[in-house]
Amino acid sequence: MTEGQSSHRDFAGKRVLITGGLGFIGSHLAGRLVDWGADVTVVDSLIPEYGGNLFNVSKFADRIRINISDVRDEHGLRYLIGGQDFLFNLAGQTGHMDSMKDPETDLEINGRAQLAILETCRKFNPEIKIVFASTRQIYGRPQYVPVDEKHLVRPVDVNGINKAAGEAYHILYNDVYGIRACALRLTNTYGPHMRICDARQTFLGIWIRQVIRGEPFEVWEGSQLRDFTYVDDAVEAFLACASDENANGRTFNLGGLEVISLHDLASLLIKVNGGGVAETRSFPPERKRIDIGDYYADFTAIRTAIGWEPRVPLEVGLARTLEFYRQNLDKYV
Amino acid sequence: MTEGQSSHRDFAGKRVLITGGLGFIGSHLAGRLVDWGADVTVVDSLIPEYGGNLFNVSKFADRIRINISDVRDEHGLRYLIGGQDFLFNLAGQTGHMDSMKDPETDLEINGRAQLAILETCRKFNPEIKIVFASTRQIYGRPQYVPVDEKHLVRPVDVNGINKAAGEAYHILYNDVYGIRACALRLTNTYGPHMRICDARQTFLGIWIRQVIRGEPFEVWEGSQLRDFTYVDDAVEAFLACASDENANGRTFNLGGLEVISLHDLASLLIKVNGGGVAETRSFPPERKRIDIGDYYADFTAIRTAIGWEPRVPLEVGLARTLEFYRQNLDKYV
Asked: Which of A150, B39, B230, B281 could make a disulfide contact with B317, Cβ separation 3.0–4.6 Å?
């Protein structure tokens, strides 16, 4: 096995549970794992504002178990978690504005439900291995870039606070109870299956919808620097962490091959698409107060520990994404 | 007004709400404020395992409003918070072992209820000024000492994770909504009114109970370094932060005049008491895994921002504390 590359040997015949498994990244994980011979159950609430979409798994739906339920449903968790070898824990509320409008729901999903999942593992399946999807949002406004894992956590929204707590529970249960768990702090992840009807996952989803429709898209400010992870690279990070004991108890940034301003990203998208119009706008007031300026990640820690690094260049990833949505736009809007 | 010293002018005639106001620090705050002419309401659940004790306010109970309710009761909060000028927000679950045995209750009190308090302030009293009681526990095992506020947060128990979230909500509501709030990360606080029937607030409570009874007390390991804040100094920090706009949005460590090993603290306590026996034990297994080694705070930030610093030497504070419990032991065991 190449360092940092997981293989089917790690997962063939293994029982795998994916929360948020009908969502963007979760559905790609499910597809990869089922191709490798894993016994896959996906749990998803299909709440319309979140990322779940049955079309995401349509090509292999007959080969996985689909359980429509919410991670806030503690009663079902015991059965679902029992006997699993791996838990990819991706279910979450990801909308930043939503977390400000309804902070309690965000806490229920990103905080309390995570604690309940870990308590269930502790009581009924302490041998399970967990990879948790965290977010760069917990850092808030970077004090320096690239941001490494030593950077202070000072979230600028309720979502970031609750995701930080959810992440910390996982690391705590690893350290105190020996339930192997690690957390990945995702940056902007993009690719097929991402939400494009709104900006709840990434603003890039809306941009892609608009250029495919031949309509202008909005760039807010434009000079901010960002990094982007193509979904296949993110999936590889989840799989590599699941199969590598060096990941246990660790929190890792993911990152991208390139650092790019939003202006340059808009130009690249228009170029790859073969056309499009970007309109620059100043921030709406309600976004300005939770804007974070420049962000890009230092992903040295995960590269050193388990050998992961991003492989898909932005131009390639954007081309694949555009191709997917040209074929399937009606399933996502 | 002397820098870092609050005065009656800041609070005379002001309406003040203290959650956890029948507890250790909250009751001292109430006493000071009522002497200064403030209109004081204390909220306390009097849950037996927590710090509330009606005896703590017995000398001035007729001059304050005592409201027995729990901060998880969102319905009562609206009325209680309405019209207040200051909120000293000290209600919390503080037991570290309790947070591991019942993590959900810890989250309800230290997480969800805090969010509800802040939402209530946002909707019904955005002019209020809040000082929140946080804890050094959120740092986990120090990576260096003295620990300053730039130190990473990596709690070693569920309590630390939830207190970190509670603290972060306060800072967020300051930053995003302009609800003036700050947080104090308390180290071991000691003095009259502290819990001495168990170690839920500080192990020092048990030590004091034992030496007063003429019974041996247990020192676990003994070489760990700690700092201690006498309760009058802690109260002064809360008051100074409430009356100083420089505190808004800030998180400050409190600390002590001295750094001392537990062995030396035991010797000092025995000396001040005029007798006593300390027995050294190794850590019980369930404590060992959440032990943090040495901790003492760098409190430069609060000294620089608002001029607070500890003033009461350990020997003086211990003498006052012993004197109080010699008179009132029966009210606390």
From this structure: B230
